[in-house]
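Recall that a protein's primary structure is simply its ordered list of amino acids. Everything else, from secondary elements to tertiary packing, is in principle encoded there. The following example makes that idea concrete.
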Amino acid sequence: MKGKLSVAFYGLIVGICLSNWLLIGVVKNNALALLMTLALLFLLLGEIGKTLTGKASGILIDSRNRISLSRLQMVGWTVVVLSGVTVAAAYNLSIDAANPLNFTIPNELLIAMGIAGTSAVASPLVLATTRNPAPLAATTVADGQADPAAVAAAPTPAPATPAIATLHAKCSIDEAAWADLFKGEDAGTAGSVDISKVQQFFFTLLLLAVYALSMADAFTSGSRIGSLPALDQTFLYLLGISHATYLTYKAVPKPGPA
């Protein structure tokens, strides 16, 4: 039922706690605990999305009923970093009950999360200021479904300015698809591949995987975890350039074929 947290939600929270206790305290495998925590956190977010929207991908769906790449990036960094914090705290607790949270998060990692968060906020702002609004944006009700009465009563929108594209929107949240991650944002390009999104998706996937593996490697040492792994400056430069290029490309209207 939408809006009501299910037993699975609470079960996943308990599962995260139990898996960390078992894999860290009994099996003594921090890397496996990290991977398990990553998987369970993604499932937990999927359960939240299903509770609120009826779809497991609901947390990634934007106001235009499309799965958003910017949201996926922010969720990915949040889950990876939160998994590291959880495992580091659990491991420190297993060897020293005093101050298990006494470890640092490198500034470079905070900057990387800030870049992902800024991109998620700036992306809809860029689209709103460079495009005509999506026709269906004002005719959807709270649960994301199109309101037939509002659609019928809505005035016919004025013709879009030829030089400015119109945002693409879907009538129902049920139409949101994973293919939206790679499609254009405008009505004229919504059926074609956006190469900047393809590049950004695989670049983000690579960076997240590399950092997750570096955490798993750092957590295999037998000493107390005093800090999450730091990010290389080159890593940050690549991340910043990638997001800047992505937002710049998105800012250019693409009316598509007449």
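Residues 137-142 have pLDDT under 50 and may be disordered. DSSP finds seven helices and no strands in the chain.
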